[in-house]
Every structure is written in structure tokens, then in C-alpha cells.
Amino acid sequence: MKTFGLLIACAIAACAAANDTFFIRGVDVYPVTGAEMKGVSVLVQDGKIADIGAKIVAPKGMKIVDGKGLRLYPGMIDSNTELGLSEVSAERVTVDTGELGEFMPQLKALSAVNPESEHFPVVRANGITSVMTFPASGGRGGRGGGGSQYISGQAALIHMDGWTWEDMEINRSAAMHLIYPSIASRGGRGGLANVDFADEIALLFAGGSAAGTFTEAKRNYETQVAKLTEFFDNARQYQKERTANLPGFKRDLKFEAMLPVLEGKVPVAVPASRERAIHDAIAFADREHIKIVILAPQELGKEGPELKSKNIPVILGRTEALPENQDAPYDYAESLPGEFYKAGVKIAFGTFNNEFSRNLPYNAARAVAYGLPYDAALKAVTINAAEIWGAGDKMGSIEKGKWADLMLVTGDPLEVPTQIKALYIKGKEVDLSNKQTRLYQKYLARP
Amino acid sequence: MRNLVTALLIFCGCAFGADSAAIAIRNAKIVTVSGSVIPKGTVVVRNGLIQDVGENVSIPGDAVVVDGEGMTVYPGLVDALSTWGMPGTAASGAARGGGRGATTTAAPAAATPAAPPARGPEDRPSTTSWIKAADEIQATDKRIESARSAGFTTAAVWPTRGFFAGQGSLVDLLTGEKAGEMVLVPSLGQYISLTRAGGGGGGMGGGFPSALMGMISYIRQIYLDAGHYQLVKDAYAKNPRGMQRPEYDRALEGVLESKRILLPANRWVEIDRMIHFAAELKQPAIYYGIREGFEDRSVKYLKDANATVLISMKWPEKARDQDPEAEDPYRQMLIREKAPTTPAVLKKAGIKFALYSDGLDTPRDLQRAVKKAIDNGLSREDALRALTLSPAEIYGVQDRLGSIEKGKIANLVVTKGEIFDDRTKIEFVLVDGNKFVPAPEAAPAGGRGGATAPSGPNGVKK
């Protein structure tokens, strides 16, 4: 009886081991961080890349994958999504992206991630093995929450596979999502892409717009900045009291969550579309001595040297986008990544979306067509993202010791016709079927 | 009976005339508009009418003589689409939106009691077609004095709120006690806008119609209803016995008694749309706004339709206190730049037009607005015509107004210098023969706000 139990235990262990241990033979490896290696073998052991080389041989009994004629790339990383937090954005009960309140640093997106989300299989079917999932402002579920939000919580870096969110976790606090105030006066650029329509509406309902003057908007902005600064001051005061461990010290979750930010361990991720907003956000980070990542800029302006010299990374939005206003050039979105790259800024891509997260490689590809060097585009969806979000030592490239987040593909992953033959997350092969393939099969079978 | 009435009328006329002394302006330059300029001539005014005008006109013995040496006499200016005197339209600040030209007339400021949201055309949403400006006008409105200081003596005043806002009236800018004295023509037609009467909002909770297609369909429905209403009414009037009495509908009554419609058309696409719409409704139409009248397409559409237009003089301007880093869209900048060329462009194309104040009411703003059209290619003579004889012709009162001719109403502006120049001083204006002298601070160059004090021996009527 005892031996039988032991046998079962062994069998389970063997199975588990076999699950994330294998050998790929004769594959072209594109490590991203180095030159490509043609026709080599890769040994994956316990979910990690154990060895790469032309001469290594598979240990006896190990599962062997034939990589002949195929390429091996690291899995891609989408640097901004709401994956796991929002299923159908219009359906309230499926949305858990955020909470109301001005300062909500204690909220962890990770704990809200639903591993059963139908989005995960769809997204990873295109070679995306991990994503940043961001808490959004203002409790999307309940409309009209009112008031602006400054901090919406901690964004998490997660793997695209797992039974629980704990399985999926890479970095539960990869960034603090901070919405820095902006001068929001009407008129001019930004906001409505379809100005003709707005024109028409303005004409129909004359006087309906709460235009607001620049003076007003500026005053509003200054009040908001003061509020945000005060919160940081209070957090810093808390930090002092905590260190001093004074009697009667009361723990506060919000300030507790701010400590890693104040210590410079966790960056704030700040959406900033206009040049002025980028400038203001950087100035704020300087004042507070905190690390910052800029999200979804719409222009570079004169911010290049500052971003470069201060080593501030930038997460670019979708290049598959319409020009943001009627006067913008047609290639507005496509050429932006190239401009940032040429300014020497470290870039990564985010889709800022769930439904189109799967198109991450094609967003990068479009940027290549408009001036971003190919290598930089590939890095932007792999190693750069891993480094920006604090996991550069574990993922983002094919190197010894890193997780085996790999995709085995028929060609260049940034090209649409390329097929994914196999996808591995931490050495475990993941199912590439998803809702879309199921629907495809279903309707294919229709008489 | 009829003879008696006529006799009474004549008697009244005489009695009226007996009270009123003549005014003669001599040795003045007279710009008649209808004819050639008289370099040195005399105008004689009596009983509110121009008794005589010419180079060699005998001055009646009882006339108060004004020496017009160095002065120029013009016909009084006519605002072709105005809200002066209409209650609740004074807030010119509210109308100063963005430079995009969102408002066509002064936005309504007064709050009206909320009505339940309309469910469909049967509820006649935002419709006050029976309202006549003549019945609403307030002679005490400060803007009347202010506009008079700018040389305006007459205005086509319109109710401007709602889809069928009501009927406009042609009034002389008097500040008497009785508004009735002001009225020249009680009903000029129907003002149609695509703006809800309540001003802002729309959409949510405003009820039908909340979108442009609903508004257009509503206007269509009203004209269908009006046609049917007329048929049933006629049939009933002919033989009421055995026929169900048609229900009285004041909205349709108002529409039926309007002899022309004013349609909003700023952009070229709207101009095209509204020309087709007017043809479909089979209504004589005047198009107002015309901010994109400078576009080739606009000109073509207007020319092909042989249309008559009223051009807003509130030229689109850059929004004040705008974000210094904001860049306006090219189209907006283009309209801002080109809109003031519209009068010159339309003149060249031979399209009939008049200019209107569109919420402007201070002498300074009005003078600048006209000057801007002149600076953008409109000749001085054409500018003057667009503010005198043209509006008179458009409204069919050219036999009474718009030029200095014998027998016409004595609405005159007397200036030192060319009218519309910023340094020109308006000496006095005559409205129905009544003399008004602009208060010194209200002279065109003098800045905002202004009051005209009636003065002189014949200043105050009665």
C-alpha cells in the first residue's frame, strides 16, 4: 500500500517535471538581445531556459520538439491592457477595473484578475505571453462616479496562463497608475477626432458646451496639482512616522502602498498625451524624486532630450489608429514610435485595450513601416517591456536562466501570415485554441 | 361707412401733421442710395416723411433748419435680422462662444418653465409660430438706443427660439412708450431654426426631436399638417353643416399666416441642404447665417437657386482666453479668415444679400463689423446698400424705406465723415422724423454702451 502511494507520487512528479521540461531541436533562435542562431537546440528545464547551443544533446527520455524550419522567439509583452479585469466593457457585472475615490494606491489590479477570462486565450494565440494589466480610474462599473481620480491603484505584470491569479503573477506591483492633472480647456487639439460632427452638434445645440476658459482650466489644474502634492507630502510624513515607530502609530493601507513608490522601487505610470502634459508629469516626478513611466503620448515635441537624459521609458499606444484630429497627417500614429526611438527614448508598446491586445505585433510592425528600426520594434514588444516593468532578469529574451516564455513560429512574428506552432509560458505549452477558433470550427461545420 | 373711415383717416393724418414741424437739412452731402449722390443739397422732413430732397429745394417757412455744411446724410440703417427689443435676448456675452460660429443669434438667456418632453410632432415641440415680434417688443430695451447711436433706424426683429420661433416684424427704432408706434410691418414671415427653444441640452430628456433628422422631419410634418389644415378649414368654411369641426391649431395658424420663411444655413453643406428643403416645402425662403458663403460651392448653390441671403456680421473670432498651446483646426481658421469676405464674394456673384447684427448691439462692435466687410473687399457703397435698400427690398418695403427719396419714411443718419469709418461722428439720426442725438460717449469711436438722448425742439415725439 505504502509503495503504491509512493509510486503514484513519483508518477505525478514525473508528469509535472515533464510538463515544463523539454528539448527543441534544430531551431533558428532569435534571442532579441543577441544575434540569431540558426539550427541550434534549446534545453528547457523546470520552466527555465537551461541551455542553448548547436552541440547540446537531449537528455535521455526527454520530450523532444522538432524545430526544423521554425523560429524561436521570446513571448511578447503588452505594456498596457485591462486583461482579466474587464470582460465585456459594456456589461457592468463583467467589469472590475477600478474603484471610486481620488487616491486609491492600495488597490491591486492583480487580485481582481479573472484567470478564466476569454480574452487570455485569444490574446496569447498571437504570441503574447504576458501583459501589464492596469486598474482604471473611477470604477468603470458604476457610471457617473463623479470627481477626478489621481491614483487608481497598482498595475500588475502577469503571465497569460494559470489556474489562479497567484499562478499568473510576475510582479504584483509593477507600477502605480497615476493620473496627473492636465489643463483641460476646450478648443484646439486633443479630444474629439471627428470635429465635423462636434461642429454640427455645437450648431444644433448652441450654447450647450461648457467651454471654459484657459484661466479657469489653469486654476483648476493648479488646485489639482496642489491636492496631489499634498497627498505625497502626507505619504512622506507617514513614512517618517513609520520609521520612527512612534507610539500610537496607526497603519494606513493607502500610505503603506505608497512606500515603494516613495522609495523609488515602483514607478508611477502616468498617461500624458501632449508635450505639456509630458513635461509637467516629469517635473512632478523630479520634485517627488520618484520613478516615472509615460503612457500613451500623442506627440514628442521637445521632450526627447529630457526623456532620454532622465532615462524615462515611454509606453506607446496603438499605431493602428486614426489621426487624432482633422489636420493631423495620415501617418500620425504610425510615425510616432520612430520619432521617440530617434530621440533615444526607451519605448515599449501597449494596446490600451483588451479586444485588440492580440494585435500588439502588428502595431509594432506598422511603426517599422514608418521609420522605427525593426530590431527596436521587436525589443519594444519583448525585452524593453520586461525591463521597464522590473522583470528584465526573468523574461523578455531567450537567454540562459530566463523563463521559457517562448513562441515557436513559422516566420517573423511581426508579419501577419506567420503561424504560431507552439507557445510556452514558463516552459509549459499552452493551448492555442480560443473562443475565436471555436467559433470558426462551429460555423465551418454549419451545413 | 367706408367714406367716413377714409375721412377720419385723412383727418387724423392732418391733425397729426399739424402738430409736427418740418426739419430741413441744407448744404449737406446727400447719399440717396437709390440715386446718385447729391454733393450739396437739402432734405426736408415733415410728418415723419421725406417731403422733399434735392439740390434746389425750397425750405418751408416753419422748418427748423439744420446747417449741414460738412455733413453727410444717409438713409437710416436697417438691421435685416435682429433681436433688439426682444425680451430675453440681450445677453450678448452668452452668444460669444468659440470661433467656430456655433451660434447664429444671441443665445436665449431667460429660463422658461419646463414643459414635459415632447413625444412627437403632435406635441409641437419648441414651436411658437403664432408669436409676433411686434407684440413682444419692448421699447425700453437699452439695445435700441445703442443701435440707434450706430446709425440704425430700423430693424427686422425676429423671435429666434425654437424650430418655429415665430414671426418677425419690421420696426422703427423708437423709444416711445407704446411699442405699437414702432411697427412698420407686423409679420415678415416665419423664423425657423434647428435649435431647441430651451437653449442648451437637447439629447437626454429633451424629448422629440433630439437629432437633426428628427428636426428636419418635424418641420416637414408641420408643413404637411398645415396644408391639410388649410384644406379642411376651407371645406368647413364653405359648408359646415354635417361636417366635423376642425380643431383649432395655433401652431399651424402661425405657419399659414407667414408669407416667407427664414432658414439657417452657415456651412456650404447646410446652404445646399436648405435650398433643397425650401424647394420641397414650396415656401419662399431667405437663408441666414452664411458664414461659409465665400466657398465656391456656396456661391454656386445660391446662384443656381437665385437665393436671397442674410449674412451675419458677427464674424467668427478666436475664442478669448484660449489655451496658448491649443492649435485651432485648419477649417476653423479658414472660416475665421474668409467669412468676412462673403459679402464681397456674393456681391461679385450677383447674389442678393443684406447684412445683419446677429447679437452685436454696441455702436463700436457694429461699426467694426461693417468695417471688416469693407476691409475684406466690399465697397463702401455696397456695404451701405446691404444695410439700407437691400434689406428693404428683401422684405418688400422698398417703396417706404431704404433710400432718401421723396415720400419715403424719414429715417436718416447725419454724420461728419464717411459712415462706417471709425473716426466718423454721428451727429444725429432721424427715426420717423424724430431727432435723436447720440450721447457723446456712445459715438462709434467712443466705446461700449451708449444712450441716445432725444433732444432739440422736435426731439420728443408728442
Write up this protein.
The complex is a heterodimer of chains A (447) and B (462). Residues 9-16, 139-146 and 186-210 of chain A have low confidence and may be disordered. In chain A, β15 (420-425) and β16 (428-429) form a beta hairpin. With 447 residues, chain A is α/β, with parallel strands linked by helices. Chain A folds into two domains: 1-75 and 398-447, Urease, subunit C, domain 1 (Roll); 76-181 and 248-395, Alpha-Beta Barrel (TIM Barrel). Chain A has 13 helices and 16 strands. Chain A has helices spanning 2-19, 119-124, 165-168, 195-204, 214-244, 253-262, 275-288, 304-309, 332-342, 360-369, 374-380, 383-388, 435-444; strands spanning 22-29, 37-45, 48-53, 64-66, 71-74, 76-81, 128-133, 151-159, 169-178, 268-271, 292-295, 314-316, 347-349, 406-409, 420-425, 428-429. Chain B is an alpha/beta fold and 462 residues long. Chain B contains twelve helices and 19 strands. In chain B, strands 1, 2, 3, 4, 5, 16, 17, 18 and 19 form a nine-stranded mixed beta sheet that branches. In chain B, strands 8-11-12-13-14-15 form a six-stranded mixed beta sheet. In chain B, strands 6-7-9-10 form a four-stranded mixed beta sheet. In chain B, α4 (212-238) crosses α5 (250-256) and α6 (268-281) runs parallel beside α7 (296-304). At the A-B interface, α4 and α5 of A face loops of B.
